[in-house]
Design goal:
Layout (H helix, E strand, L loop, with lengths): L1 E9 L3 H19 L2 E6 L4 H7 L5 H8 L3 E6 L3 H4 L8 H11 L4 E7 L12 H4 L3 E7 L9 E3 L6 E3 L5 H16 L4 E6 L5 H14 L6 E6 H10 L6 E4 L1 H15 L6 E5 L4 E5 L16 H13 L3 H16 L16 H13 L8 H6 L6
Helix pairs in contact: 1-11, 1-13, 7-8, 9-10, 11-12, 12-13
Bound molecules: 3-isopropylmalic acid and manganese (II) ion (MN).
Length: about 375
């Protein structure tokens, strides 16, 4: 298969983790006889610095003419600490999501057996957790009308949803549940918000066409608590934009590090793949950023094109790296100096030699002999 992939590394640690995902995709292309072509473009703070625009027209055009987008991260403290800034890096990502019509953001959350004691939560609580969060991505408070009064003392953000916006992601969530544990939990605030009541009504209606799927409802405040009390009760979580943003960061604690969580953002025509973590500017250039979320996002990209064997090869390699503790410091590494690129090298190596039981993977990491 030939794929044109637009690469938008963005800010902070975005470029370094994205580079590892590309390394891994190149290994997949070589081993499975595919052709992946990578074309780079700017987005976020770096695009503001260079072109005074967080999403330059050329970047958007590239994304629209590619099969998929691989996204790094955006954000820079110089904007975070300045609420008056009119141009912000985040606008680049939000505009991109809107322009590409990426209405469904899928965020898998899993407790890896080998990482059970890396989470601050108790093992017996998180063991076996496997959740797929379906976060609506182009509506709600993020995109509703915003106002700021002339005197600067009153502000508002409107949360709007239409039946159509709810239906299309609900169908995806129910279909996903059918291939999993047949359960959808709608997370909302229907006891207070009119928009949430519309979500409940529409999702209940959509659910009628999926008789084999159980539909449950949870208010978001309770869901936030349940997520860390008993995450095993969840299969597919369906929710609106802001609740999904918050719940998914919370859920990352289950896996032991936000540096592990990948995502796919899907629309009718386009698809974008990005880690859920931010630009982590303090870590930029230090080689300590965990590339696994970006690498697993690349696996989701392959899934999207039905390259399941290839995607699974990446996941196997990631599992192996976690099992052998070839990890960056966010996961309390066993070895010193396992940098971002060393993790990528290991995963690349495993993809090239998955069957070779003679390989001593710890030695590969140490750069010592590979064959015993
Ligand atoms: C995410 C991020 C973004 C969001 C920011 C960077 C705008 O936190 O993808 O979760 O809030 O959607
Ligand atoms: Mn977020």
């Amino acid at each position: 298969m030939t794929l044109e992939i637009a690469v938008l590394p963005g800010d902070g640690i975005g470029p370094e983790v994205t580079e590892e995902a590309i390394k891994v995709l190149k290994a997949i292309a070589m081993n499975f006889d595919h052709k992946f072509r990578f074309t780079y473009a700017d987005v976020g703070a770096i695009a503001i610095d260079k072109q005074n625009n967080p999403l330059p027209e050329k970047t958007l055009e590239l994304c629209k003419s590619s099969h998929a987008v691989l996204f790094g991260a955006i954000g820079d403290p110089k904007y975070d600490n300045d609420p008056t800034a009119k141009i912000r890096p985040e606008q680049g990502l939000l505009k991109l999501r809107k322009e590409l019509g990426l209405f469904a953001n899928i965020r898998p959350v899993k407790a890896y057996k080998t990482l059970l004691d890396k989470s601050p939560l108790r093992k017996k609580i998180i063991k076996g957790t496997d959740i797929s969060i379906y976060r609506e991505l182009t509506g709600g408070l993020y995109f509703g009308k915003k106002t700021l009064s002339d005197d600067g003392n009153t502000a508002s953000d409107l949360c709007t949803y239409s039946r159509h916006e709810i239906e299309r992601i609900a169908h995806l969530a129910f279909k996903a549940a059918q291939a999993r544990q047949n359960k959808v939990t709608l997370v909302d605030k229907a006891n207070v918000l009119e928009s949430s009541r519309l979500w409940r009504k529409v999702v209940t209606e959509v659910g009628k066409s999926y008789e084999d799927v159980t539909l449950e409802f949870l208010f978001v405040d309770n869901a936030a608590m349940q997520m860390i009390l008993n995450p095993n009760q969840f299969d597919v979580i369906l929710t609106e934009n802001l609740f999904g943003d918050i719940i998914s960061d919370e859920a990352s604690v289950i896996g032991g590090s936000i540096g592990l969580l990948a995502s796919a953002s899907i629309g009718e025509k386009y698809a974008l793949f990005e880690p859920i973590h931010g630009s982590y500017p303090q870590a930029k250039g230090q080689g300590i950023a965990n590339p696994v979320a970006s690498i697993l996002s690349a696996a989701m990209l392959l899934d999207h094109f039905e390259l399941f064997e290839e995607a699974n090869r990446i996941r196997q390699a990631v599992d192996k790296s976690l099992e052998l503790q070839i990890t960056t410091p966010d996961l309390n590494q066993k070895y010193d100096n396992v940098t971002t690129s060393k993790v990528g090298d290991f995963i690349e190596d495993f993809i090239n030699n998955p069957e070779d039981s003679n390989l001593n993977f710890s030695n590969i990491y140490l750069g010592q002999s590979t064959i015993i």
